[in-house]
């Protein structure tokens, strides 16, 4: 009798994470995820959770939040055996609300271009805002390495060095790098469960979502939290399609309104994405609102992928496609670490 084939599902999810997503970013997560994929008992436990709670980063972050240390899988497995009820509690009560300030490096050229074209300061709304750290593109520093063109450095006016994170980004192609930071006069976000940057547990959760070896991201997160704590953004709890129109109505009328999102649309079903597109069309018609979308291949492969125009997923290679008002303009690193400018409409 032939051995039964391994069923597709959770084990494949963890194996893909361990062999495709984690290598080059976290050797620890790569080792743990591949070992989990080959651990039928652990896969059985994970499969007891709802499907949307089985994702590798959520489980690994929950363990890290509880104190799991970088080390061999056998030690991690022992930790899981000892703390499984606690890991389950965190997984079921939390979600992967990675709040990567580095994504502002990918968004900044588009935001600056909109501000320049409008001749007005910006009012920002982020849907899927987590703790709202991406709402401060004007308060961070930037270093764009443009290759032969040298490095473009930008810093917030009047801020002391070391009081803000410096976001480093490799720029390729004709990226329209600004000469200064755009003015932002109003900023707000929507999230199902906004994280409170003054709550130690929420801050610890944000740190747990950073992959173990990426110390520079943890330091950047702490600096970004310091910026946000000095001037907390308006964060609204609720479903984005239920809250967006009302929140947009609070934005100053004399500012250029921009709605943006990163790695959010995959969490909506097809009807939710269609409703969001309709809302953005209404805001564009009624308010001249601009829309910046920064999404990955998980949206592109959806049947209703007009949220993100068709593009060869292999070309993205784990990166995001950046769109301005529905037109693709760049391919971005998922944490803002790179920005490859492409012609609008290229596929």
What is the fold's blueprint, element by element?
Elements: H1 10-21, H2 27-37, H3 40-46, H4 56-65, H5 73-93, H6 104-118, E1 122-127, E2 141-145, E3 151-154, E4 166-172, E5 184-191, H7 200-208, H8 215-230, E6 234-237, H9 240-248, E7 256-262, H10 270-287, E8 290-295, H11 297-300, H12 313-316, E9 320-324, E10 327-332, E11 338-341
Parallel strand pairs: 1-5, 1-7, 2-4, 4-11, 5-6, 7-8
Antiparallel strand pairs: 2-3, 8-9, 9-10, 10-11
Characterize this entry briefly.
This protein has helices spanning 10-21, 27-37, 40-46, 56-65, 73-93, 104-118, 200-208, 215-230, 240-248, 270-287, 297-300, 313-316; strands at residues 122-127, 141-145, 151-154, 166-172, 184-191, 234-237, 256-262, 290-295, 320-324, 327-332, 338-341.
Oligomer type:
single chain
What is the CA-based Rg, rounded?
Answer: 20 Å
**Can you tell me the overall shape?**
globular
Q: Please tell me the overall pLDDT.
A: 91
Report helical residue fraction.
25-40%
User: Total number of helical segments?
Assistant: 12
For the largest beta sheet, what order do the strands appear in spatially? Answer: 3-2-4-11-10-9-8-7-1-5-6
The sequence of SSEs as H and E is: HHHHHHEEEEEHHEHEHEHHEEE
**Proportion of strand residues:** 15-25%
Number of DSSP E strands = 11
How far is the N terminus from the C terminus?
A: 48 Å
Let me know the largest β-sheet: 11 strands, mixed
**Structural class, from helix and strand content?**
alpha/beta
- Low-confidence spans: pLDDT under 50, at least 5 residues? 1-7
């Amino acid at each position: 009798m032939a051995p039964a084939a391994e069923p597709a599902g959770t084990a494949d999810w963890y194996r893909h994470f361990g062999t495709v997503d984690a290598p080059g970013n976290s050797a620890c997560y790569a080792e743990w995820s591949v070992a989990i994929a080959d651990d039928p008992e652990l896969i059985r436990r994970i499969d007891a959770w709802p499907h949307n709670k089985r994702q590798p980063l959520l489980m690994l972050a929950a363990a890290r939040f509880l104190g799991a240390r970088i080390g061999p899988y056998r030690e991690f497995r022992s930790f899981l055996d000892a703390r499984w009820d606690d890991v389950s509690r965190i997984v079921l009560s939390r979600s992967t609300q990675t709040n990567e300030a580095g994504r502002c490096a990918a968004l900044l050229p588009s935001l600056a271009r909109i501000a320049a074209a409008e001749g007005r300061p910006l009012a920002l709304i982020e849907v899927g805002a987590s703790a709202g750290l991406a709402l401060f593109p004007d308060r961070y520093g930037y270093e764009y390495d443009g290759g032969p063109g040298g490095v473009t450095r930008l810093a917030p006016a009047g801020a002391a060095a070391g009081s803000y994170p410096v976001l480093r980004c490799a720029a390729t192609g004709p990226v329209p790098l600004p000469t200064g930071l755009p003015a932002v006069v109003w900023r707000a976000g929507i999230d199902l469960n906004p994280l409170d940057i003054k709550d130690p547990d929420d801050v610890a959760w944000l740190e747990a979502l950073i992959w173990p070896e990426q110390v520079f991201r943890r330091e950047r997160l702490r600096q970004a939290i310091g910026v946000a704590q000095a001037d907390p953004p308006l964060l609204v709890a609720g479903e984005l399609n239920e809250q967006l129109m009302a929140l947009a109505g609070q934005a100053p009328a004399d500012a250029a309104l921009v709605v943006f999102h990163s790695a959010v649309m995959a969490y909506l079903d097809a009807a939710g994405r269609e409703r969001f597109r309709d809302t953005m069309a209404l805001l564009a018609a009624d308010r001249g609102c601009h829309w910046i979308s920064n999404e990955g291949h998980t949206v592109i492969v959806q049947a209703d992928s007009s949220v993100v125009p068709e593009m060869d997923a292999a070309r993205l290679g784990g990166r995001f496609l950046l769109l301005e008002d529905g037109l693709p303009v760049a391919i971005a690193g998922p944490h803002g670490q790179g920005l490859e400018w492409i012609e609008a409409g290229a596929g």
